[in-house]
Amino acid sequence: MSIFKPLTDLKDTTGICEYCQQHFEPIFITRNGEPELVIMNADFFNDHFRFRDATGKLDFAKEFSVPMTIPIRDLKLTSRVSALCLESDQPISIIKNGEIAMVVMSVDVYKHRHQELMRLLQ
Question: For residue 46, what pLDDT is reported?
Answer without folding.
Answer: 79
